[in-house]
Specification:
- By secondary structure, the chain is α+β, with helices and mostly antiparallel strands.
- The chain is built from four helices and five strands; from the N terminus they run E-H-H-E-E-E-H-E-H.
- It has a five-stranded mixed β-sheet, with helices on both faces.
- The longest helix is centred in the C-terminal third of the chain and has 15 residues.
- The relative contact order is 0.16.
- The chain binds coenzyme A (COA).
Amino acid sequence: MKIIGKGQKKPKPIRVKIREMEIGDIESVWNMGEKQFLEIERLNWDWSPESIGKYLDPEEGFGFIAEKNGEVAGFILVEYSWSLQKRKAGSIEWIMVGRKYRHAGIGTQLIKRALTKLRRNGMKEVIATIWSKNKPSLKTFNKMDFKTRGKLIFKSRRL
Ligand SMILES: CC(C)(COP(=O)(O)OP(=O)(O)OC[C@H]1O[C@@H](n2cnc3c(N)ncnc32)[C@H](O)[C@@H]1OP(=O)(O)O)[C@@H](O)C(=O)NCCC(=O)NCCS
């Protein structure tokens, strides 16, 4: 997506309603993520209605929806317990804001809500994995004080 640099006009903030994800949101969330998260060359994790549904299990995690005029403008899907060793670390697994709503503060609002809920549920840390070329995402998380802990390089070869 277009990166807006210094001196360029940034879009006005958009007010949205942030609410918990419900079963009825699965299809909209899946459709919104389909184009980007299903690209075959991307080496992305599972993106399917079933994998989205697991965030409705309060033992596993949660999802928040940003709603504008009755439509899903964005979402965030979060898991508790990154690993057996890091049970107190939550993980932001997926976040997306619809194209027409981007760079207007919605991603930031979704992350803030997720952090509050993670804290309330006893998490002490939160982890996000981001592709190194995904500048808008890196900027969004950097702005929210996420620090780079390491750089994971995906390698593959044909067989
Ligand atoms: C990443 C994403 C969720 C960010 O959501 P967003 O609502 O656009 O983010 P925000 O408006 O809250 O932006 C937060 C900060 O990030 C930076 N930023 C975000 N988009 C930007 C852009 N296009 N150009 C320049 N800076 C940008 C800005 O510093 C911004 O803060 P500021 O407006 O106060 O300057 C959104 O770009 C998106 O859905 N991308 C596609 C899906 C994706 O890549 N998900 C992440 C997988 S890890």
